[in-house]
Design brief:
The protein has about 200 residues and is an alpha/beta fold. The protein has helices at about 5, 30-40, 65-75, 95-100, 125-135, 165-190, and strands spanning about 15-20, 45-50, 80-85, 110-115, 140, 145-150.
Length: about 200
Amino acid sequence: MTTASQTASQRDPIRLEIIVASVRAGRIAPTVAGWFAATARRRTEFDVGVLDLAETPLPQDLSGGPDAEAFARRVGAADAFVIVTSEYNHGYPAALKTAIDTVKHEWRTKPVGFVSYGGLSGGLRAVEQLRQVVVEVHMVPVRQSVSFHRVKHAFAPDGTTTDEAAIDGAQRMLDQIAWWARTVRGGRAHDRYPG
């Protein structure tokens, strides 16, 4: 079966799904993801969706079912991803690992960027682990990332930030994601991925 991303023309918008990894009560994840989604939506080459794992019931035993199938379809329809993740005990949230493991072929060849947050580390240790994991499912992690150190001080009440490094990093990351998404789209039009 051909997916939407395989049949899209080079001029079609790039379907970018922002995955919100934290599911904890009292999380700041929606604020961080909301800021990044607003940033991406200001760019006309992207069609942006937000996939919040707190609202996406996936079985931890990976047994499948209607929710897992719906999630796989949404992943399959996307051209690229940005994962917004916190760092818990030097790692990333368990819900995110379940989400990655729930899907198989639909991740393949798709670029992925990371927006991380936390205390002094800014979530960077979680991202280092994630880079290893996403390669195993044949995704393409882009070089540029965004991190928020001391995240509770990084955002104004309206969800904006004045963190120039994050603002600049987000644009650079989106540039890289767009390049990879267009390149993969062109490659898929000519040949099947051998993975």
